[in-house]
Amino acid sequence: MDLGIIWESLPRLFHGTLITIEVTAISVMIGLCLAVPLALMRVSRNPILWVPVYCFIFYFRGTPLLVQIFLIYYGSGQFQSLLSQIGLWTFFREAYFCAILSLTLNTAGYTAEILRGGIQGVPFGEIEAARACGMSGGLLYRRIILPKAFRLAWPAYTNEVVFLLQATSLVSIITLMDITGVARVIAARSFAFYELFIAAALIYLLLVYGVLFVFRRIEFRISRHLLDLSAIAKKKTPALA
Amino acid sequence: MLDLRGYGWLLLEGTKLTISVGLFSMGIAMVLGLIGAWGKLSRAKITRGAADTYTTVIRGVPELVLILLVYYGMPTLIQDLSGAAGREIIIDLNPFVAGVVTIGFIYGAFSTEVFRGAYLAVPKGQIDAARAVGMSPALAFRRIILPQMWRFALPGLGNVWMVLIKATALISVIQLPELMRNADIAARATRLPFSCYFAASLIYLGITIASMVIQQRAEARASRGVRRE
Asked: What is the CATH class of A3-240?
């Protein structure tokens, strides 16, 4: 095992790590912003609203992410003249833009489905109570249903973010230099295949368990008022003693 | 729009390979899942530690990195190790074997959790009763626990299968001519990348829908002996 090559590659792997984090963060944030209206449309009773969202979610959850990335990055080439006419070709030419677009749409689909579960899991008594106080429509969603739905959906959403973080490794296939991309390029030049892929795997492990740690802390914080405080007090006592 | 200029058959050929890669990997994943669940539930610290490490590591590393590690890394690792031992062993991994083994190994970690949950869902009294009539632990597992575990394991295994079949698309990276790889070849040859990848995505969607139908039937069959209120 050639540890020297890992040591030499560390600065480039670090740069790749930044790209991975950047791509993940951007897609997660835009994806979440898209997922909220999509989930609201999905639970609507009006078929004009829920049928297209149902199809969107079904398509993005039912096909591999790699196909979605290729469809957007290579597939847009089929419509090059049309895209240049409306001035979008400069975006679709860029691997970075296509990577973000496909990851965002993919996570929006999964997140909308998770949020739908959360919204439908809100106890009816809470909605009834809010209605009795005179809330309806937007106010009811903003103050009662969505906060509760987020709290219910948080553990599943944590998993989705972890999956997306790992899924960003696919952007290396369309030439982006994320952790996997850097490892592949250095490995192909130096023939130090297992050294670099093991190093990449370790970085991903660190990132994944880092994200899990942060998201568990947030979960604790947003549902603190629901915890059984006496149980926590009991747990803490032996540690103090 | 979906005129594939005669390359449709290539996608169908790839579909066959995708399904067989999926089935072989699922077989490996289920065997590893049962072993992993046994390890997690065992009283021995070593097996429990090994099973925990297996699921923790596999679930924290992207599939693509593991596929690249196995396909490109394993042969060089074995070569280096055997070279250090004074002997030269050169292995050439076939992409099918490398893909099936890696995907099976990854989803074995996910089925470990499924089987562990299913084992815990079987009422403890069933095991006690089986032991009381004189069955050995192995016989009690085969005749009493395993048949009842299926009912609890099926929904989880169905989910693992749906994620697994989509993950097989990653094997195209190591040039196995499965659906994704053939769609790539067709896209280059016809210069109709959108049509080819879209057709491929519809085939994956078809596999997903078929799997959902089969899963529903299997679940209904597995719980036919359960009384409903």
From this structure: mainly alpha
